[in-house]
Q: What sequence folds into this?
């Protein structure tokens, strides 16, 4: 069913009885050409691009819970491509460009809102490093603009700009094409489009082991719903990537941490941009529903508990209130955490694993929502062709052996 104004009218006039489910719930078949493990944005996008770009339709996507129930449905929805190194700039800007046309392509409103991101400089050192950062972006062909103190104040009038503020704002920079997108809608849009192209999306199906054949090649998976054979397998399981790698018999340089976020009660439009304060660790935006969305930093110990610790919560609220004192009157409605897959250089891993036939997409850590179209596109490419996509070439697992890291840790927006 194509969504349109006419479809909406038809639905309304028939008392909303004729809507069809956005995707099927098929029973798993015994064998597929490709199996993808993980029904977050990256897995769903990979399934969609496999069918759309490469004509590979006999695909199963296996999700142990519900699609989008991992980090894809738990993030602060910020999309941007303000990275420092050319390799990352290319990858993330490709994703942002895909996002710009995605609602139309998927026929599903992902609620992309390019309201811009403002990064705050609280010291002379911040001003210098942000000038370098913004200049690097422009050299990479990505929009960036240095902001004076007054320009920052005009963009976020509720910021405390008084000279005796706890964290004085001296200026900053902006990427205007950055903003937010509705996270669930990205997962649902890709799921619906992939399903329409023949992909089987199988929820409540946990992968518990891998089957190998001649030469150690992977030939299928054991799941909570039985054995499924496949010629090629892709893993896109974020914080559980190293668990799956262990099942397959190799190690990943990934450490899993809880990353938490929270929303306040909704209020009238008050913040028309995304504000990030790398110095304090706070990143804040206002959702379309009106809630103030606040992101925190990582818990500093590895964990698989989707909660997040109180000390980190307290720290980010203190920082947010120092920046926006008027938010102290708001009630916090919800807090949650996701388990993110952090690697040493804060850059992703996309490509083959040491096990023939098994490919991986992980390492997005605290910032992979913005990259979903690129992560899906490049994973689909390597699954379909056996060759790395040129965008993914610098992001191979072997960089942890060669030492050719792409260290975006300092440029990832927040010093996680
Ligand atoms: C609080 C928070 C804030 C964030 N803010 C931002 C932001 O503002 N901008 C941004 O770009 N990024 C942000 N991120 C990061 C972003 O959410 C992730 O990088 C991204 O969603 C990863 O997508 P994914 O598809 O790889 O993983 P997920 O969405 O986590 O999907 C992985 C899926 O794999 C499934 N799975 C795991 N093990 C198995 C198994 N054995 N069998 C079957 N399925 C399995 C899981 O259930 C899960 O659904 C944030 C993350 C968090 C937690």
A:
């Amino acid at each position: 069913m194509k969504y349109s104004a006419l479809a909406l009218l038809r639905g309304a006039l028939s008392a909303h009885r004729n809507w069809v489910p956005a995707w099927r719930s098929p029973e798993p078949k015994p064998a597929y050409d490709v199996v993808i493990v993980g029904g977050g944005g990256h897995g769903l996008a990979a399934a969609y691009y496999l069918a759309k770009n490469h004509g590979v339709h006999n695909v199963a996507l296996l999700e142990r819970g519900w699609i989008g129930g991992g980090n894809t449905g738990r993030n602060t929805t910020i999309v941007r491509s303000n990275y420092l190194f050319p390799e990352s700039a290319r990858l993330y800007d490709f994703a942002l460009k895909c996002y710009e046309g995605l609602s139309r392509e998927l026929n599903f409103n992902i609620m992309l809102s390019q309201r811009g991101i403002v990064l705050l400089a609280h010291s002379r050192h911040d001003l210098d490093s942000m000038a370098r950062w913004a200049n690097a972006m422009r050299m990479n062909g990505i929009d960036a603009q240095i902001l004076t103190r007054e320009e920052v104040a005009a963009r976020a009038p509720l910021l405390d700009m008084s000279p005796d503020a706890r964290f004085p704002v001296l200026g900053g920079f902006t990427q205007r094409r950055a903003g937010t997108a509705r996270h669930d809608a990205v997962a649902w849009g890709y799921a619906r489009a992939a399903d329409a192209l023949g992909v089987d999306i199988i929820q409540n199906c946990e992968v518990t082991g891998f089957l190998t054949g001649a030469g150690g090649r992977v030939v299928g998976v054991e799941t909570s719903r039985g054995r499924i054979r496949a010629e090629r397998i892709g893993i896109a399981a974020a914080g559980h990537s190293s668990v799956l790698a262990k099942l397959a018999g190799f190690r990943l340089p990934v450490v899993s941490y809880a990353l938490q976020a929270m929303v306040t009660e909704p209020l009238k439009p008050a913040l028309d941009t995304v504000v990030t304060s790398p110095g304090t660790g706070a990143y804040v935006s206002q959702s379309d529903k009106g809630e103030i969305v606040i992101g925190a930093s990582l818990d500093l110990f590895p964990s698989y508990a989707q909660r997040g610790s109180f000390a980190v919560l307290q720290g980010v609220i203190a920082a947010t209130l120092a920046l926006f004192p008027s938010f102290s009157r708001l009630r916090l409605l919800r807090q949650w955490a996701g388990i993110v897959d952090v690697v040493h250089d804060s850059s992703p891993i996309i490509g083959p694993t040491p096990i023939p036939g098994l490919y991986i997409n992980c390492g997005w850590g605290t910032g992979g929502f913005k990259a979903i179209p690129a992560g899906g596109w490049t994973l689909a490419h390597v699954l379909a062709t056996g060759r790395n996509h040129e965008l993914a070439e610098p992001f191979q697992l072997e960089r942890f052996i060669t030492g050719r890291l792409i260290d975006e840790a300092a440029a990832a927006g927040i010093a996680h």
User: Anything to note?
Assistant: The chain has ten helices and 18 strands.
